[in-house]
Amino acid sequence: MATDLQDLFAFLAVVQAGGFREGARASGTSASRLSESVRRLETRLGVRLLNRTTRSVLPTEAGARLAERLVPALGEVESALDVVNSFRDRPTGTLRLNVPANVARIVLPSIVTPFLKTYPEIKLEVIVEDSFVDMLAAGCDAGIRYDERLEQDMIAVPIGPRFQRFATAASPEYLNARGRPEHPRDLLTHACLRGQFAGGAIPTWEFERDGEIVRVDPSGPLMVRLGAAVDLVVEAAVGGLGVVHLFEDWLRPHLDSGTLEPLLEPWWQTFTGPFLYYSGRRHLPAPLRAFVDFIRAR
Questions:
Q1: Domain covering 89-159+273-297 assigned CATH 3.40.50.300 in the classification
Q2: Hey, what CATH topology would domain 163-272 get?
């Protein structure tokens, strides 16, 4: 039975990661071992579970049905085994968090080091992803998102700053050449540096003052995929290429140093900070319980 469970876990790791190499990285094993486990499982069941090509690995209809049922079932198995963790002096295991790029850059740096020093037997894996995903289906224990994007039936714990703002800025060099906008709509005549979600949507820039909300959709010379590439937008703004609209915390070092000048500050929109969220329908793994307690204590 132990071997059968290992094969099932291996199959699910490949499906969730979208490939053998990716699954191996996520599960801490080798791609050849995962391939052998999946092949053994297919032989025992007498049905093909994965369609393998040189470019992709996708579940067959039978594989997709099996994976769908395995997610909650194997989750219960892991939860049952994790109960033993409560009898240890110190929790151990792996904690997988799914977070957007701004949280990885702004919120987690002040939390990760003291948490892992407090719990040295816990291994933390951070998956940075700006698109909203099914956290459990992606093999993560918890996620960090903003309140308007939380899934139902999830428990939410505040983490990081309770309020944040979007800031608008440009370099003095750019503003001396192009002028300083006095209203958000003035940005329509400026070179604006934009971001795009993985699904292709380009978020509009939103401003608010005295209850009035203004949304603008400006154009400019640079567009990047939201996430790690946002640093490129910031550096382009510092270099004088155009106007940037981003989390104030992300821009703050440049605003303080004067390499970027704040624009339209009375219009900067304030919003609620992020939340750590996790399913309330299952036993909390010991590493996640330790992280939740750590966050609440802060």
A1: no
A2: D-Maltodextrin-Binding Protein; domain 2 (3.40.190)
Q: Which CATH class is domain 2-83?
A: mainly alpha
Crossing angle of helices 2-17 and 61-82, rounded to 10°? 120
For the chain, 298 residues long, give each residue's pLDDT as a single digit of tens: 444 788 888 888 888 888 888 887 767 678 888 888 899 998 988 899 998 876 778 889 998 998 888 888 877 777 776 666 665 567 888 999 999 889 999 999 999 999 999 999 999 999 888 766 666 666 788 999 887 556 667 888 999 999 999 999 999 999 999 999 999 999 999 999 999 987 788 999 999 999 999 999 999 999 998 877 899 999 999 999 999 999 999 999 999 999 999 999 999 999 999 999 988 766 688 899 999 999 999 8
pTM of the model: 0.69
How many angstroms separate the CA atoms of 184 and 263, rounded?
9
- Residue 53 zone, left/alpha/beta (φ > 0; ψ -120 to 50; rest): beta
The domains of the chain are located at 2-83, 89-159+273-297, 163-272
CA 12 to chain centre: 21
